[in-house]
Design brief:
Strand order of the largest sheet: 11-14-17-16-15-18-10-1-19-20
Distance between the termini: 13 Å
CATH architecture of the largest domain: Alpha-Beta Barrel
Number of helices: 10
Oligomer: single chain
Shape: elongated
Length: about 400
């Protein structure tokens, strides 16, 4: 993938963390969500920078992500948010990962694994009870409380470190659904404590709820979106002094002057209107360029935007691609983006082979194999060499090879 890379400014990530900390309720701490390779920024690099800054807790979705953090020296609390499989538990316990608990049957099985580890290795497994309050994904409902409490009482090696829930609509301006979720969480935890189970920590806030409900900060807030420099929605813009740590770049690898009327790209959808220069950059759909996640329209205005965008594409006008930047000026993508090559119409702009182009590459769809280059303390870090065999096979981390 020569000629295309992503620059990650770790100083910006740390700055965003400091912004979050400034607005925390006094008794609360920030749990940095570094799932999905820290949203494409690089889980190890981001977690290291935040741990150096004083962050004590991290959240991931999968056990393999937590093990990867441990293998690379992350010492803080690591909570696995997603469901886990029995075959993963022993390794997770040995690595002192904290697991989310969503199934009654898991409790006795986790307890037995700890009991069978032997005296020298034996340790409790720390779990966080996930409460289902309206996300409709994983967690215990209040109707399961009696059975849950009995199972925990009979599992001395299962230590309840936390209890939490996840809000489905916290970024929406109508907060009635979120308020209902919080009331159900509160009712659940009250009855849990009445049954003699006292979790060490409570946490409910994602980035949106953190901003809107400081009274719900409890012991931890789980922050991901804000750390990567994004707000959870337009209504939150300007609430913090965030910086975007992500810049995707490519280089011009081919440059040619062409006459008026030249057809460009697949289906010849683009035609030059005058003599111009065409530049080729080595990036395309395979790298995530031009790929957007599917969004469900949030009302009629969103629906109309989608319809208009698709309608004008019939005439060779592709919205969302015209933010390609060359030497501080916007240049147009000429026609359709290819699998690994894209053509730009740079007009009469002065440029040459090797010139850098800033591209609008979404971090959530960027190919993990696109190299990441890290900046810290104002300096570009040298390329990190990772020994063969140290990385898991998960493709999310292949950019570190």
């Amino acid at each position: 993938m020569a000629g295309t890379w992503i620059e990650v400014d770790l100083d910006a990530v740390v700055g965003n963390y400091r912004e979050v900390i400034k607005h925390l309720h006094p008794q609360a701490r920030c749990m940095a969500v570094v799932k999905a390779d820290a949203y494409g920024l690089g889980a190890i690099e981001v977690a290291r920078a935040l741990e150096e800054e004083g962050c004590e807790a991290f959240a991931v979705t999968r056990v393999e992500e937590g093990l990867f953090l441990r293998e690379h020296g992350i010492e803080g609390i690591i909570l696995v948010l997603g469901p886990t499989m029995k075959e993963e538990w022993l390794q997770a316990i040995e690595a002192q990962l904290q697991l989310s608990l969503s199934e009654i049957s898991s409790i006795s099985e986790l307890n037995d694994i700890c009991s069978n580890m032997g005296q020298e290795l034996q340790q409790n497994v720390k779990v966080h009870i996930k409460v289902e309050t309206g996300m409709g994904r994983t967690g215990f409902r209040i109707s399961e409380l009696g059975e849950l409490i009995n199972a925990l009482r009979n599992a001395p090696n299962v230590e309840v470190s936390g209890v939490y829930t996840h809000f489905a609509r916290a970024a929406q301006r109508d907060q009635s659904y979120t308020l209902g979720q919080y009331e159900r969480f509160k009712a659940f935890t009250d009855q849990l404590e009445e049954g003699g189970i006292y979790p060490t920590w409570k946490h409910v806030c994602n980035s949106a709820a953190f901003l809107d409900h400081p009274e719900w900060h409890h012991d931890f807030v789980r922050i991901g979106t804000l750390l990567i420099g994004h707000y959870p929605g337009q209504a939150f813009s300007g609430r913090l002094g965030l910086k975007d740590p992500w810049t995707a770049k490519s280089q011009i690898v081919h440059l040619r002057k062409v006459p008026k009327g030249t057809n460009v790209g697949y289906q010849s959808l683009y035609h030059t209107k005058k003599e111009t220069k065409l530049a080729v950059i080595p990036v395309g759909y395979a790298d995530g360029f031009g790929v957007a996640p599917h969004f469900v329209p949030q009302g009629w205005l969103d629906f109309l935007k989608i319809v208009i965008k698709n309608f004008i594409a019939l005439f060779g006008i592709f919205l969302g691609q015209e933010r390609v930047e060359l030497k501080g000026r916007t240049v147009r993508v000429a026609g359709k983006i290819g699998m690994q090559l894209t053509v730009l119409d740079v007009g009469g702009q002065d440029c040459m082979l090797g010139d850098e182009v800033i591209i609008p590459l979404r971090r959530t769809v960027a190919n993990a194999r696109v190299p990441r280059r890290y900046r810290k303390n104002g300096q570009m870090l040298s390329k990190r060499v990772v020994k063969e065999g140290i990385l898991p096979t998960c493709p999310e981390y292949s950019h570190l090879v």
